[in-house]
Amino acid sequence: MTADVVTHPPISASDSGRFTSIRTVLGEWKQLFDGCNFIKRKERSRSRRRDVKDAKTKRVASASVAQRSSTRKSQSAELCVCDSIEDHVIEKFTALPPGIDPREWLATHTLALFDHVNALCGSLSELCTPATCQYMSYPGTAKAYYIDERGKRHLYSAMQYMDCVMSFCEKASRSEELFPTKYGNQFSGDFESHIRRVIRLLWHCCGHLASKHWDELGQLELRPQCALVMAHLAKLSKTFALLDSKDQQLINNMVQTIRPSNIASSGRGDDTSSAASQRWSRVPSSKSGSWGGHPTPAVLTCKPYAQTC
User: Fold this and answer.
1) Is residue 132 part of a domain?
2) CA pair distance 217, 203, nearest whole angstrom
3) Does the predicted model carry a pTM greater than 0.85?
4) Residue 213 labeled ligand binder
5) What pLDDT, in 10s, does the model give residues 80-108?
6) 97 lies in a domain?
7) Less packed terminus of the chain by CB within 10 Å, N or C?
């Protein structure tokens, strides 16, 4: 048997020109709509009755399940990378590794914390003014005096107090005697006392931001960042005994108030995260550089920014 061979007639010049024009038009349309994102519209009922509900609407088994799902959704919207860092992780990267000089370790963490607190203060520099915060206050102290290097007491506004703290820390970070960066240079004898003062002043700034500007931090989406910086500060001061017992208790209470208690489970959306969600909603009454590597930004003159995750 022989198969019949089907032969197509040759394409004429007019047909070829028509196909070419079609390809040109399709190419122009593709180029025109290539960057557009088309969204499928939801189906709407054509009925004019307001009480008629769509039959395709999914039903929830009970009100508790609906409430649980809404809680997970609202909770996941608040969580970010800072919330994924658990307390045992903070304790692990704060503990002194074997073979490392404790002063080197303290210098690295202290100046990294200074960079973080400086960024938080810069973000609220336009919101914390002498009109809103006439005096510096933080948990445990309603009116704080700034004591300069000569021992003189100054009653400043909150922003002026934090400005003095940032200027003091910035000046100290560039001191070769306190934070040596050149090979062969040693730490000064008063290094530990200086570190204790820096940590205490950073706690004052963080305590003021968390207790007086918690709503503003929420609007800037900086609550998780502030809570993580506070937890890091509390863990470092506890590990190396940098704060007195009163300040250590105050900062521990503040961390327990503003930081979710069960971060890992709340990040995965477990059922046990409802307590953490309620605790998180309670309102309390730039890249971090290393001490020898990256210079810190200008003191409170950088553009305020909101660092979100």
Assistant:
1) yes
2) 17
3) no
4) yes
5) 667 668 888 899 989 999 999 999 999 99
6) yes
7) N
State how far the Cα of 186 lies from the Cα of 188, in Å rounded to an integer: 6
Judge whether 22 lies within some domain. Answer: no
pLDDT in tens, 172-207: 999 888 998 888 888 988 999 999 999 999 999 999
Residue entry with tokens 């930004």? 297
The range of the structural domain enclosing residue 149 comes to 79-270
Q: How far is CA 111 from CA 25, 131, 243, in A?
A: 62, 30, 17
* Cα-based torsion angle of the residue sequence 246, 105, 86, 231 in order, rounded to the nearest 10 degrees: 30
Instruction: Confirm whether residue 208 is marked as ligand binding.
Output: yes
Question: Could you give the CA distance from residue 122 to residue 168 in angstroms, rounded to a whole number?
Answer: 15
Which segment of 44-48, 126-130, 156-160 scores lowest on mean pLDDT? 44-48
> Which of 104-108, 163-167, 207-211, 273-277 is predicted with the least confidence, judged by mean pLDDT?
273-277
Q: How many domains does the chain have?
A: 1
Work out the percent of the chain whose per-residue pLDDT is above 90. 45
Helix or strand holding residue 147 (H, E): strand 146-147
Q: Please check whether residue 38 lies inside any domain of the structure.
A: no
Distance CA 201, CA 11 (A): 86
The CA distance from 260 to 300, in Å, is: 29
Between helices 223-240 and 245-258, what is the axis angle to 10°? 150
Quote the tokens at residue 10: 């040759």
**What's the CATH code of the domain at 197?**
1.20.140.30
Residue 100, helix vs strand vs coil: coil
Find out whether 154 is annotated in a ligand binding site.
no
